[in-house]
Amino acid sequence: MAKADFTLGMKTERMTDIALSFKKTGTLLAAIEMELFSHIAGGAGTAAELGAAMGIEAEKADRLLTACKAMDLLREVDGRHVNMSDVERYLVKGGRTYFGDYLTYITRRDYANWDHLADDLTAVSDGDGRDERSYLNYLQDPEEARRFTVAGYEASIGLGHKLAKEYDFSRFDHWLDIAGGSGCYAIAACERNPSLRVTIMDQPNVILIAQEFIAKHGLQARIDTMPGNFLETPFPGGHDLASYITPLQGYMPDEIIAVLRRSLDALKPGGEMLIVDYMLEDDKTGPLDPAFVNLAGVRRGRYLGRVNTGAEWCDFLGQAGYVNAVSRWFTPHQLGLITAQKPG
Ligand SMILES: C[S@@+](CC[C@H](N)C(=O)[O-])C[C@H]1O[C@@H](n2cnc3c(N)ncnc32)[C@H](O)[C@@H]1O
Fold it and tell me: How many Å apart are CA 331 and CA 279, to the nearest integer?
């Protein structure tokens, strides 16, 4: 059903708010970088105390505090600033669920590109579908691979535990987590399923970091690793579960179907393929974050990837030779969860 036009009679505030959203980004990044929320959690509450903690004048701290209050990141209780509960949970350094470094990393990486979106969309493609944003290119640099993978662990370990709670890994004996990154999903699943074994496949520079996380959790006996490029490296066989957790938005449908078809080699008959990735509603009305990822998947006229609907994911799996493909939301604002089986 078509969305109702709720803007009838509105003036320019809505458009102004959208156009000036970059100011929200800048303010949030500054507050994270200056550890404003961490200082508040640590007990500083007035502009003077927070200015001293951040090493700036109280007047400057007050301006940052005012903007953060206008953005509902903070509120004032009895003359002292306190974090809103989501800020307290996710943006206080040292907390178990802190993901400020991830937000900073991903925002700084992508921010400038949004300034030339119209040029990206109108440019004529030179036909080469890869650029510096492609996983295969920029993770060749060991330092970049470390930053990306550590940030990825921080951003996704919570999701790893959510998946381990909601998806029944106890049905499986040996899981091949293709493009498993830091290992956060494998680690969470192994912690909750004592007989599960996992092999993580990813690019060599990423595997080195995954090995550090696996060792930190004492899971070397149950999680092993193999370097490889899933576009060409032959898959080891004999698994009852194989997965792609969020690499495939960096690829186009023809590449995805080919890769999924080859991945059948990794599975025993009846084995399950699990995909978790950015997903769009079947009518393509949202959600907003996947819609933005999809839009940013065009650079200088080239397609660098695509965000697909649940129906499209199921179609790709069917074309690749799987049966019983079904999709549902994993995180309703962002990620879908799609499963299918290798025919028995
Ligand atoms: C967004 S990360 C996801 C990592 C992990 N699954 C997670 O969710 O935390 C994407 C990962 O896909 C890997 N990747 C992308 N293309 C790949 C390819 N062709 N072969 C192997 N790994 C690839 C990258 O190296 C990166 O670690």
Answer: 10
